[in-house]
Amino acid sequence: MQTDHLDGNALAGPLAEIFTADVSAAVSRCATCGLTGPVAALRVYDRAPGLVARCPGCEEVVLRLVRGPDAAWLDLRGAVSLRIPLGGANPGAVATDGGAAGGG
Amino acid sequence: MTRWRVARLVKVRDENPSARTLVFDVPGWPGHLAGQHVDVKLTAEDGYSARRSYSLAGPEGVELTVQRVPDGEVSPYLTLDMEPGDELELRGPVGGWFVWRPDGPAPVLLVAGGAGIVPLMAMVRARRAAGADTPFRLVYAVRSPERLYYADELARPDPGVSVSLAYTRRAPEGHPRPPGRLTAADLGPYGEADCYVCGPTGFVEAAAALLVELGHDPARIKTERFGPTGD
Asked: Which InterPro entries match (chain A) (predicted)?
């Protein structure tokens, strides 16, 4: 059993630097095998320059994120789509200032 | 966009010989949901910085419980050296998937492996704080009694919350369950529930497989892995 990976929950902070919505709660579709599932459930490898997220079904790369000193590189070639929940009723609305605090 | 905030340590509490809880004052903290985490950044005088993710341990304010990892870059500082009044940078709350909301009606099954108890304890505490009557069951796998977090709090009765401890290496004298790895019997019998599993990667894979084996719908099993070391 491979135990050297994290999961897509670990992408929440680094992606929150770029996007207003919480991408870790989005549903992605793998470009290789078509599996859909939450970004939070991707396998994330962080022992590299940047973060590499792989599909839990076929192990192909779905997303890569590298943060340089003055820019971020986001490679999404392995994702056909991301369905990003928006609006007050979704569980993915992460608080920015004054945001989804305490479920409100 | 979520920015880095300055957090000042106000209080520490030892949980066991190798873990402690740190309570921070973070001006402008917007609040969070149980299960969310923060990214912590420590920067050395030479500019080198190290980042780690830690789950929020309580329903309100910024409270983290950190396990000391020998030779870790960050956890020895947090668990041994950092003193009230010291500051660090943190970003959050982040993570909107591995969360529980007090208005969720479904029964909840929480499965913790070691330090994976932290976000699940935040859910137990959020339930209590909200006065929710959602049935909760917590199965907490831990190596030995010295590794337990929140021992006193877990031993106190909390109506509607059942707690089972599964010691994996050494159990205290008189404990009814012999030490050993988590089995389907520890998680069963099956009852419809939203499941949350958190722990080291290997533990999470094994526990999630046991839940599926028992009949739980994989779509209702949420998992969070913190890697091989947690540091």
From this structure: DUF6510
Question: Model pTM?
Answer: 0.91
CB–CB contact A16 B94 (8 Å): yes
A16: closest CA among B97, B64, B40, B93?
Answer: B93
Instruction: Give the whole-angstrom CA distance, residue A93 versus residue A102.
Output: 11
Query: B128 at the A interface (CB within 8 A)?
Result: no
Q: Which contacts (CB < 8 Å, 24+ apart) does range B171-178 have?
A: B171/B144, B171/B145, B172/B145
Pair B218, B212: CB distance under 8 Å: yes
Residue ranges in chain B assigned as alpha helix (H): 75-76, 117-130, 151-155, 184-187, 201-214
Q: How far apart are CA A75 and CA A72, in angstroms?
A: 10
Q: Where are the alpha helices (DSSP H) in B56-200?
A: 75-76, 117-130, 151-155, 184-187
Do B202 and A40 count as a contact with CB atoms less than 8 A apart? no
- Chain B CB contacts of A20 under 8 Å are 1
B4-94 architecture in CATH? Answer: Beta Barrel (2.40)
For B96-138, write each residue's pLDDT tens digit: 999 999 998 899 999 999 999 999 999 999 999 999 999 999 9
Where exactly are the structural domains of chain B? 4-94, 108-225
- The amino acid occupying position B37 is H
Q: Is A103 on the interface with B (CB under 8 A)?
A: yes
A51 touches chain B (CB under 8 A): no
> pLDDT in tens for each of the 104 residues of chain A?
456 899 999 999 999 999 999 999 999 999 999 999 999 999 999 987 899 999 999 999 999 999 998 999 999 999 999 999 987 544 444 433 333 333 32
What interface predicted TM-score (ipTM) does this complex get? 0.89
Rounded Cα distance between B120 and B111, Å, is 8
* Whether domain B108-225 has CATH 2.30.40.10: no
Domain boundaries, chain A: 6-86
CA–CA distance, A47 with A60 (Å, rounded to integer):
17
The phi-psi region of residue B169 (left if phi > 0; otherwise alpha if psi is between -120 and 50; otherwise beta) is alpha
